[in-house]
Fold 2-amino-3-carboxymuconate-6-semialdehyde decarboxylase.
Amino acid sequence: MRIDFHTHIYPLNLPNFVEKYGNDKWPVMEQKCSCGADIMVSGNLFREVTDQVWDSKKRIEDMKKEGVDMQVISPVPVTFSYWAPVEQALEMAQFQNDFIANIVKDYPAHFAGLGTVPMQDAEVAIAEMRRCKELGLAGIEIGTNVNGENLDADYLLPFFQAAEELEMPLFIHPWETMAKDRTPRHNFMYTVGMPSETALAAASLIWSGVMEKCPNLKVCFAHGGGSFAYILPRLDQGWDVWPHLRLTEHPPSYYAKKFYFDSLVYDKDNFAFLLERFGHDKIIMGSDYPFLLREINPGKVIDESLQLSDEVKSAVLGENARQFLNLAKIGVSK
């Protein structure tokens, strides 16, 4: 079974929160035709999208063409809205969570779903995570930071502990990336900022002791973990030479073995390095469908890595996603 773990969806009928609450930071979908729309933020074009981003039947057509059996659908990160008053952000999250849950209910053979929660308030986030589990969603997608605070902020620890207790896996996706003032040209926010932001999030969860305190927490990072795999030896070196900064019993590489990563690195050599560093059981196929930077066809790098055994390919292309998301427990069969 071939599962595309990293795909995004945006409800075409998402309410216009700019009109409702009077703040133009909310994302708004402006449909241009039956097959295309613009996502606008603060009056500016954030992203041009096609009907692939909202139309379930169109997605299923693409899946058949590209050899994908199931997509794991998650919100577009621009909708996280951690900056907003928590009651308003919760309303945004709940609309999307209900939307995704209904798609999964309508097409259980084709889709599994990840929800979103307002991370600016851990208590509210935990309550909505519980509701997501009741809705049948398989996990939660969160951003790499919350209003500029890294994921090691003290107030977030109860959220991670609750995710561990509830057996709700977390998919961590970059958003509001570092150095935004230095990356607008050349679209460096996507190609440089996002990988760096993801590495910072991973390092924060390890160095702070979150992964030591939550040993059974399941976490997967988008885009192959960004630059994390390549800076991990440097993190270990820092842990070694700065004993006064240590908050964990073991060096970072020890806890990095707990992480999962999607396979979206575009390059066979980079993919081979990811496998070597973390093991084939921790890599999950993901394409970033339906956006421009996605891999076409999903799993292309895996398919082209001829040295992989059938067992390894089967694991990375589907079985690891099933295990990570506990799909068997929520009634998704092979």
About this structure: The first helix runs from residue 17 to 21. Residues 200 and 228 are 8 Å apart (CA to CA).
